[in-house]
Design brief:
The chain has twelve helices and 14 strands. By secondary structure, the protein is α/β, with parallel strands linked by helices. Helix 7 links the parallel strand 5 and strand 6.
């Protein structure tokens, strides 16, 4: 059966072809690669490995490889991808050397952050420590941390696009800051391990994204809107629709992450996302024609924003947003419908 993501994977390969020589004949270790980010990293790795004959191998840390196998059979069955069972906070080190490590293991949904902030912050920090210790033990040269725009805290009203130089931070008096503060400590640990052990620790501060494999029932507004659209129902906006967000397509995300891993300057954070801001109400209208907004805007209140400046990534690494949001939504819907059809016909 043809890969329904073939055109996207070719797009990724077209913009990363020169990077893959860095992985030729090597092994790469990945944490958190059974989620949205991870699926795209594995999809693009397997595609490049096959098309370019890299002879590389990926080892994926997972607490439940069987569950991932049921979700992504073609990846679990790929001979260049293996699994290592364990928890990111305490996993036994796999045997052998690894040239590259991608640490993408963090529960980013708001449910855990609200319900159990202690577990959230402990998982982020302990998991990062364990991964960095493993990187030093296995001879790893380059390590990528997928951090978050949450490290900046609330975006100031006078700042349309938040740059990496903004020195804001989450409010430590609020338990829900656990995720953002945990990521701040994770970045600090990367700086310490770079100084002490010479690890080339790269930092990607990720914002908001859309694409195949995105959960449709989590707290991601765009995933909820796409779900409502495909179910033929009304698209519901729970707030007042004034908050501003921006979304980068998953195929572009993969290009950015691989580029930062290979070419990024150690301990120099790069924002990853789109600069094309739109309100949640505008996003809902783009996702579907029937929209219901529950709240009413408060007169004089400045809308909340979560929009990055990507000037550093664009000018230093030559990165760009290639897929516009309307096209990203269309491709995501098409993939979901194709996946559902394939499941019905099995």
């Amino acid at each position: 059966m043809p890969n329904p993501l073939a055109s996207d994977l070719d797009h990724i390969l077209d913009h990363t072809r020169d990077l893959w020589e860095d992985l030729r004949g090597n092994r790469i270790f990945l944490t958190g690669c059974t989620g949205f980010f991870g699926c795209w990293l594995l999809e693009s790795f397997a595609w490049a490995n096959d098309r370019l004959g890299l002879g590389a191998r990926a080892v994926v840390l997972s607490r439940d490889p069987a569950a991932f196998g049921a979700k992504a059979t073609h990846l679990a069955a790929n001979p260049s991808i293996g699994f290592h069972i364990g928890d990111v906070r305490s996993f036994e080190y796999p045997i052998g050397s690894f040239s590259h490590i991608v640490h993408a293991a963090t529960e980013s949904t708001t449910a855990l952050n609200e319900r159990d902030p202690l577990t959230m912050v402990e998982t982020v920090i302990t998991g990062t420590l364990r991964t960095l210790d493993f990187a030093t033990a296995c001879g790893g040269l380059k390590v990528l941390l997928t951090s978050s725009g949450a490290v900046y805290g609330k975006q100031p009203e006078n700042l349309e696009h938040v740059p990496e130089t903004y020195a804001g931070a989450p409010d430590t008096a609020l338990p829900r800051s656990a995720y953002g503060e945990g990521k701040r400590v994770a970045e600090l640990l990367c700086a310490i391990y770079h100084q002490r052990y010479g690890l080339e620790t790269k930092i990607a501060r990720c914002f908001a994204f859309v694409g195949p494999h995105l959960p449709l029932d989590a707290h991601f507004a765009i995933g909820n809107f796409i779900r409502d659209r495909l179910n033929g129902g009304l698209i519901r906006v729970n707030g007042d629709g004034t908050a501003y967000r921006s979304y980068l397509y998953a195929a572009d995300l993969a290009i950015w992450l691989w580029t930062i891993l290979v070419k990024g300057i150690p301990c120099r954070p790069y924002n990853v996302g789109s600069e094309e801001a739109l309100s949640i109400a505008e996003l809902a209208a783009m996702a579907g024609t029937r929209v219901q907004i529950a709240g009413t805007p408060t007169p004089g209140k400045t809308p909340d924003r979560y929009v990055p400046s990507t000037h550093r990534a664009r000018t230093e690494l030559g990165l760009a947003q290639h897929v516009p949001l309307s096209e990203a939504i269309r491709r995501t819907c098409n993939w979901i419908e194709a996946t559902r059809t394939a499941e019905v016909t099995r």
